[in-house]
Each structure stands twice: as structure tokens, then as C-alpha cells.
Amino acid sequence: MTSLRKETESEAGLAADDLQETWRILTTEDRLEAFLDLPRAEAEDFFLDLSARDQYELISAMPVAQRRSWMRLLPPDDAVDVVQEAEEHAERYELLALLDEQTKNEVTALLAYAEDDAGGLMTPSYARVRPDVSVDEAIAYLRRQGRDRLEHVNYVYVLDADQRLLGIVSFRDLFTAAPSRTVRDIMSADIVSAQEDTDQEALGQLFAQHDLQAIPVVDAEGRMKGIVTVDDIVDVLQEEATEDIQKIGGTEALDAPYLEVTFSEMLKKRVVWLAVLFVGESLTAIAMGRFEDEIAKAVVLTLFIPLIISSGGNSGSQASTLVIRAMALGEVTLSDWWRVVSREIIQGFSMGAILAVLGFLRVVAWQSAFHSYGEHYVRVAIAVSLSVVGVVMFGTMVGSMLPFILKRIGLDPASASAPFVATLVDVTGIVIYFTFASLLLRGVLL
Amino acid sequence: MTSLRKETESEAGLAADDLQETWRILTTEDRLEAFLDLPRAEAEDFFLDLSARDQYELISAMPVAQRRSWMRLLPPDDAVDVVQEAEEHAERYELLALLDEQTKNEVTALLAYAEDDAGGLMTPSYARVRPDVSVDEAIAYLRRQGRDRLEHVNYVYVLDADQRLLGIVSFRDLFTAAPSRTVRDIMSADIVSAQEDTDQEALGQLFAQHDLQAIPVVDAEGRMKGIVTVDDIVDVLQEEATEDIQKIGGTEALDAPYLEVTFSEMLKKRVVWLAVLFVGESLTAIAMGRFEDEIAKAVVLTLFIPLIISSGGNSGSQASTLVIRAMALGEVTLSDWWRVVSREIIQGFSMGAILAVLGFLRVVAWQSAFHSYGEHYVRVAIAVSLSVVGVVMFGTMVGSMLPFILKRIGLDPASASAPFVATLVDVTGIVIYFTFASLLLRGVLL
């Protein structure tokens, strides 16, 4: 990565960089070999930078004797992530056994939380002080608390004897306050905090909204449980967006880097949806079957079928992706559904009208150029135009409603993928088109 | 937001919460009124939590006399964002004029950078020390440096007399080191840093990859220019993902919350793409026109057109979205193009084969049930199956290549939207289908 400048000139530094460059394309075995060749210090920095998935794969690939020291390198919250990468219970147990007693207990406690809740993302290591000590005492105390309590030091959390969170004081304030004032004097009691079960999407919104470096996690009684730090949320936001994008594209979420998914996994995650859509789309054959006579009499009508149904699919996928993202960002909630859908229908009408004009001109122009569409081309043109308006409106309606319906029944709105919406709209599009056509051409062509 | 707990019981705290709850649905005027009703302290916290866009709109709506104190509340990097929200040069100048001399100079310097480069995201406020002072001296010195230099205190940057970045020492290390050691002893010289022109997507990857709280920005000579903090990157990552998702859905990026985009803006951002796709899709009418005789003779063929072309569109949008996201995450680079495309073609063949079996069974089953497809239904079924294989393969190929091509010629890969790919594939799908059909049915139905 060109934007990554390592200042160190040492051989090892370069070796670590090389490994980083080539990591993507190495097998786990090669990764391990190159990794174990690094000097310990370099290897430790490198290891801590890896994703939980990579850390887990390295550790599993190692000789058992070496695993302990690497597991113990991880802070509790990261250790949890690595343990969670293990599928089987027995394997998780082995990994836990590598940790020292205290960390093992902390990790086990964290494992009780769902992976994507605040409880599962938080670390129990944070800086804490009592409210009634002086600024100088607090600073001296924090210096004694030592490394593990100070993983993130932008904020110090003020707790009473029952571990209840009273306030937060930023290091900046602590540092720049008059040494003799008490922590209580300078702390802020206006706290943005999360519950243990706050899900990661909501957490991401809190961080984005308040530009915080860390958010404390408290239980129902307001007792401090840990902190979630923004650097952990960055990965979470990336994952959430990736899942949504992949679902919108009509696949299951890959849950792994594109190039690391095996061929068969990839096939499974894609073909299931494709098959479902294929079966759904085969309804179009039934729909068209019902108009077989019309088609036989007026073949010209069939020429515009793809044009019309695809317009519905396109407008529908626009609507669904806009709504899906707005929901993910918390800009739109379930209660907004009518506001959104009604707006989308009007958008659909306006867009449909514009396309209808294009469609009409297209047919007329072609006719005058090549006389392809027979004497009744004006009626055909009108049928096409009217259908486009109807189909595009229907597309935006379905596309904008579907995410709300999915969310309402507890499914992921992002499953309202472009292909899914398009398939829903295609069938209706055909019915709409041939209905208009038979009305306009009955007794003329039909 | 349920996960947002404000500990304060004061009236004002509640008022601020109410405003936050209703913010989304208020007009700028109502927002300003409610905002100015808050007690100053509450208002300041609230103001600092707002997005740059909202801050800009509030300030522009205020009586001129009140603007100064709010602009001066912002740290330099946030002030830059607010100024950049202003479209006209004159307006930007007015906003700059509200700042004190020093901040104005810092902001003007930052304005010189592109909005989405490291230079445009960085803040010039960071904690700095000389390498040869003792730990105790460093801590004492930092306490004297005061608030503005300590916006983010997780890292202290070690600079030589020429402002060259020698190393980084975490507050944790500084805090827990023996007071008499020198900063040089405990600093890390192994620095992840960015250039002024590193773009925000690459920055986001650096943060996600290294779990850093801040990244220093240096010029070509390694002189320290500022730091980018992870809390600013959270918003950036959100925006980047939102843009990609909206483009994948076949609209231009909205650049604003869904509900805040005016009807006409929204229409403009959507109908342009729809119209382009509509014109492109009208090629299908031409393609089908070339097979009008075949259609007239064998109407049954037309029934499967939507089924076949949509399969290509769906597999294509799967491929393009997977590749687009893999590129955005840096999992796939231009040089991987053949590795990806060849893999996608094989995926396409496998998926096509599975769908082909479904298609064949579908036709045969329907025939035995309703005798809808005439005596030569087996040949029709074969034509459909072969076409599905060809179309799905073609879809995955186009869908996976398009993002590479767009990126190669300097466009955004995310413009390879599902609708765009589908349109490209539809025309070819029709040609493929009718070619197979005429081969198989020539002399029989045709």
C-alpha cells in the first residue's frame, strides 16, 4: 500500500512489509512460515495488526507449543474475537485454556455476549478514578494503574464504590485542569453510553454521530461493564456495509475476503439466490402464455417487452437500494414508511413520464426511418409509453416498500436486492403492458 | 435512539434529547429556533455533535451577530468541513472571517487540500515532544501545552528541530515508563503514516487494518503536517459505502440524507441514469426485430425471453457488486483482473449449468401438465437450457470485467451498477437465445 510508510530501515521492517504486501496471495502454511521468520518484536506488531480471522488461522496452524505466547499477546476484546472464529466448542475451549486465569475469566464473560452486540465488542480494560480525588492524585493513580488498564486513554471513567458510572473526564481536561481541583469538579455528567445489548449498527451510528473515541457500556443499573473503542467499530462498519452491498447485489454475504472464499462456498452463496430468482422469473413465461394469441397476432408487441420490464426493474432497484441504505444509517425508520413510499410513487410517476416521452419518440422515429412497426405504430407507441409509466411507478413502489416489509417481519432489509425487486416487477410489467396493448389495439391489430 | 442514554436529569439535557429525536423532521428554521432555546452549555455540546452539513446550515440561518461564537467553537479540521459546505467563494470567505487569526490561517492552509485527501481530513492540533526530554519532563510539558494541542492524546509525536517525525510514543507508554528514561528510549520508530495526498479510502483501509486511533500525515521530506483521527474516518467510511451502494443501485450518489434531498434533486440524480439505461435497453427491440420472422413462426420462443435475459442480469449484478466491494476494501487490485474474471467465468458456467437443469425440467413439467409448448417442446427446452448457460456465463464475465475497466480508465468502479450490467447483458442474451433456437428449431418450427 503506497500510503503506508514504515520509517524503520531494519531488514526485519522490510521483511514485515514484504509479508504484508504478499499476505493476500499466500497460503496459510506460507504465511505461518514467513511470519515465524520475523524477529519477535516485528512479528508481535505484525500479529496485532492482523484481522481476528487471520490471527485465528495463524494460531491454529502453529505447533501447539507456540500458541500460548501469541494468544496471551492479545487484549481481552481481541482474544474474544479470535476465540469466536473457532467453530467447534472443543476448539474454543483449547484456545481459552491458553490464556492466563484473569484474562480467561474476562474473555469467558465477554463470550456470553452476542458477537455483534456492545457486550461482545467491549473491552474490560479502561482507565477509572474515584470522583473525590484531586487532579494530581488522579494522574499519579493512573500512572500506577499501568499498561493493561490504559489501553485507550482519551477518557477516564469516574465510578462510585458500586462501579456506577458518574461521569467522564477527558485526559485533556485532567491534564490541563488546576492540579488541586477534584475530578468531580471537572468531569462531565452528560454521558453517551450504550447498553450491553446495543447492536453494532446502532453503536456505529452513535460513534459517527458524536465523533467519540470510546463509548462506555453500562448495565440496567448504570454499572460500568467496559468500553467499546472506535477503532473496533471501524471494522464493524466496514463489515456491515460489505454485507449490505453483497446482499443488494443478490448474493448471500461472503463473510470473508473475495479472493479467500473457496470456489464451492462462493457457488453456494450465489446459486441459491439465482435459482430462487430463476423460479420466480419463470412466472413471466406463465404471464406471457396468457397473452400468446395477442403475441401471435401482433409480434411487434413482443419487441418492447425487455425494454418495458427492465425499466421497472431499474427504477425498483434504485428505490430499494436508496431505502436500504437510509435505514442502515438510521435516516429512515419503520414509522417513516408511508412518507417514503408515497414519495417514491410520485418519483416513479415523474420518471415514468419522462421515459414515456423517450419511448414514444423512439417508436415514432424508428417507424419513420425503417417502417418496422406497421401502420398502427402510433397506438403501439402509446401502449409502450403508458406501460412504461405504470411499470416504473410500480417498480419504485415495490422497491421502496419491500425493505420496510422485510424489516417489519424481522428480516434484513438489504435482502431486497436489485435482482429480487426486478424479478417481482417483471411479471407485473408484462401484465401491465399487454393489458394496455389489448385495450389500445383491440379490433385493430388484435 | 434507545441506545443513547443521557445521564443528566436537567431540563436542558432532556430538551437537547428531544431536539435530537425530532431533528430529522424539522425545517432549518425550526431547528435554529429550538437550538437557540437551549442553554449555552447544552447547545455547545449539541452543536459539536452535528454533522458539518447541519452545522453549516445552522450557522447560515443565524443572525450574523451570533455566527462568530459558533464558528470559533469548532476545532480547525471541523471548521474546514463547515467552510467546505459553502458553495460560493464569497460565502466561504465570510465564514473564514469569523475565525480568530491563528485558526483562520490553519483552516486556510487545510482548505488548500482536496476535501477527501489526508491533507483535507487532518487536524494541525496534536501533542508533540522532543526526543531527548525525560518522561517526567514530557508529561509536565504536555500538561503545559494545554487544551488545543491535546485534542487527541492517545499518541504523542516525537519531532526533531526540523519538525521531522522521528517516532511515536503512546500515552500509555509515557505514563507507565520509568520517569527518568528519555522519550527516545521508549518511542516506537516503526510508524504507520500517510502522505498529504493519500485519499480517504486508502486512509480508511489503514485504520481498519492497523486498528489505530490516529495516523500522522507527513510531507515528502517526512515533516509532520498533522494527524487524521479515527473518529473523523468513521464518517468518511460511512459516506464512501453510501456512495457505492447508491451507485450500485443505479442512481448518482445523493450526498445528503435521503429525507433531506429535495424532490427535484432526487429526480435529477435518478432519471438521468434511468434514461441512459432506457436508451441502451431499447437496443433489445432492435435485436428482437432481427428475429421477427422466427418469433412469428414460433411464438412459444418469446415466452422465455424475460426468464433468460434476467438470469444474465442477475448473475452479472452479483459479479459486479462482489468485485466493486472487493476493490473498495483493497482485497482486489487492477492486477488481479484476470484471476477474478477467469474465476467468475467458471462460476458463471457452474451456476448456468444448474439453472439450465431447472429450466429444462420447468419446460418439460409444464408441457406434460398443460401441453403449452407444442410437439417440439424438447428442442425448445434444450434451446432454453443452452441459452441460460451462455447468458449466465456472459453475465458474470461482463459483471466482473466492467469494474476493472471503469477503474482502469479512471472512473468509479461502483458505476458498474446492477441495472447497468443487466442492460448490457439483455441485448446479448436475446441474440444468444435466438441463435441457439434457430440452430435447434430450423426446419422444425422455423
List low-confidence stretches of chain A: 1-12
Helix content range of the residues of chain A, please?
55-70%
Could you name the CATH homologous superfamily of the largest domain in chain A? SLC41 divalent cation transporters, integral membrane domain
Q: Tell me the CATH architecture of the largest domain in chain A.
A: Orthogonal Bundle
Give the helices and strands of chain A as they follow along the chain: HHHHHHHHHEHEEHHEHEEHHHHHHHH
Mean pLDDT of chain A: 85
Number of helices of chain A: 21
End-to-end separation of chain A: 65 Å
Strand arrangement across the biggest beta sheet of chain A = 1-2-3
Percent of residues in beta strands of chain A: 5-15%
Please, how many domains of chain A? Answer: 3
Stated plainly, the CATH topology of the largest domain in chain A is called Tetracycline Repressor, domain 2
- Globally, the shape of chain A reads elongated
- What is the CATH class designation of the largest domain in chain A? Mainly Alpha
Q: Would you count the extended β strands of chain A for me?
A: 6
Structural class designation of chain A: mainly alpha
Largest sheet of chain A: 3 strands, mixed
- Seen as an oligomer or otherwise, the chain set is homodimer
Largest interface between protein chains, with number of residues from each side? A-B, 143 and 144 residues
Describe the structure.
Two copies of one chain form a homodimer. Chain A is mainly α and 446 residues long. The first copy, chain A, folds into three domains: 2-113, MgtE N-terminal domain-like (MgtE N-terminal fold); 128-229, CBS-domain; 258-441, Orthogonal Bundle (Tetracycline Repressor, domain 2), CATH 1.10.357.20. Chain A is 63% helix and 6% strand. Chain A has helices at 11-23, 28-37, 40-49, 52-61, 64-71, 76-85, 89-97, 101-111, 118-121, 135-145, 171-176, 183-186, 200-210, 230-248, 263-281, 283-289, 292-297, 305-328, 337-370, 377-408, 418-441, and strands spanning 128-129, 155-159, 165-170, 194-195, 214-218, 224-229. In chain A, strands 1-2-3 form a three-stranded mixed beta sheet. In chain A, helix 18 (305-328) runs parallel beside helix 20 and helix 19 packs antiparallel against helix 20. The relative contact order of chain A is 0.07. At the A-B interface, helix 3, helix 11, strand 4, helix 13 and helix 14 of A face helix 3, helix 11, strand 4, helix 13 and helix 14 of B.
